[in-house]
């Protein structure tokens, strides 16, 4: 009996340890997702909020002290593919998706908690259009949701990474793939699809969160008896593109999901005919049913691969034209076609469309009354001519004035911060039958990309969406391909394809700090707080289509290799 009291503490500790090991992960409610932008201790959504503003209220790291930022830890992701992903942070654990695994990592120490592989077909690389990567996750009620490059949707236990269900969205051998983070809205998991360059037909799906059962399906090209089917030549809508390869946004008050659609298939507009609805558009949908409430088409007919899939940022803007000084609920997009759009997100009415790209020659502007671009003579001819004898030079190129890498929006300063691309392209349209299989269907010959005379191919830009003018711009030899993060203290974070993770002053763009991560950065940075300390986390590792095709001399010697970095101020 005398030994029992001495053994009790050890037994109690063992029991406590066992209990903690079995403790459930903190459940993420819909309310947690809705309040994500206002709760900096957790990052529960792609975009750091349903409105995808990628802005933080944290202010411990400032323009004055950011020079003291140092790495806290670094974790190898054990691959050399593109690391264009955004982690989630829930109750002290970072959750991360790559093309090959899903990981849980202790946010403060960098210790890997679990790592679950994704089983992919052996021949998957032969069917992928535009890159091997994963952009992120969704989370709800102790479950992580992701997509896979062989076009499946997967649910995993947040506690241990075990697979709960897996559903097939499409056949990868028909050119379909999935790289985006799902969106949870209206009690439904919503996913899109990639594959527009192969002539795949775009769509959106709504899934049951618990079972993976498909609740609804919506094609994003209009055919048959659909409204807008007459905007296509007969039969072309069934292979017409309009992929939905980036994550949408959600307004819970209006109960509307906003999702962008991509290029037409093929790129050649005369082959498709007409506006080709609903390519290069934003679709406003009811999340519970997939019902289309309104749409706006950024680039009717899309002659130049000007996808409309770029992030759709939700904000409340004052003093817009016709508002009487009142605040308007808007949707904003810096489109690949070179114009920055502001729409009324309740009705889809176009409020503003201003040029931000350094050079635009495909259109002279956007007519606010009709909402349509004012074609240049070159574009007017392209729409009518299926085959050309000579090439033309188009600005921006198919990379766009801005590509997929998401902007941030600072609601206090009322400024958007985003990365631009300054490239033209030489193309000649040709007749081309759909080749089938893993082959691009473009209907044109690409003669190469044209850099500006000064060799500066991109910039980080601060943009005032009310005035429609840039506040400042920092140009660079190679365009940045990372997401942008802004903070309430006035620090703007961005990553370079040459490997530097950088901080800029939100007031004037002045560079304040830089750290070389060892590979190009295409990740989406986040900032968060734990035990009173602010951290910044980003992935490094670049293997982009731009790097493969653009012939950028700045990227000739940038090594591959992906990793996860976390920074904090030196004590």
Could you characterize the architecture of this molecule?
The structure is a single chain. With 571 residues, the protein is mostly beta strands. The chain has one domain (26-569): Quinoprotein alcohol dehydrogenase-like superfamily (Methanol Dehydrogenase, Chain A, 8 Propeller), CATH 2.140.10.10. It is built from five helices and 38 strands. The strands form ten sheets. Strands 1-32-33-34-35 form a five-stranded mixed β-sheet, with no helix packed on it. It has a four-stranded antiparallel β-sheet with strand order 2-38-37-36, with no helix packed on it. A hairpin with a 6-residue loop joins strand 23 (363-366) and strand 24 (373-375). The longest helix has 20 residues, at 3-22. The radius of gyration is 23 Å and the shape is globular. Residues 1-23 have low confidence and may be disordered.
CATH architecture annotation = 8 Propeller
Number of strands: 38
Q: Helical residue percent?
A: under 10%
Structural class label:
mainly beta
Mean pLDDT across residues: 94
Number of domains: 1
Helical segment count: 5
Q: Please summarize the sheet with the most strands.
A: 5 strands, mixed
SSE layout and pairings?
Blueprint (H helix, E strand, L loop, with lengths): L2 H20 L7 H5 L20 E2 L12 E8 L11 E3 L2 E5 L3 E6 L5 E6 L20 E3 L2 E5 L4 E6 L5 E6 L14 E3 L2 E4 L11 E5 L6 E6 L29 E3 L4 E5 L8 H4 L8 E5 L6 E6 L15 E6 L8 E8 L4 E6 L5 E6 L7 E4 L6 E3 L1 H8 L7 E3 L13 E3 L4 E7 L2 E6 L14 E7 L7 E7 L4 E8 L8 E3 L3 E5 L4 E6 L5 E6 L9 E5 L2 E8 L4 H5 L13 E7 L2
Parallel strand pairs: 1-32
Antiparallel strand pairs: 2-38, 3-4, 4-5, 5-6, 7-8, 8-9, 9-10, 11-12, 12-13, 13-14, 15-16, 16-17, 17-18, 19-20, 20-21, 21-22, 23-24, 25-28, 26-27, 27-30, 28-29, 30-31, 32-33, 33-34, 34-35, 36-37, 37-38
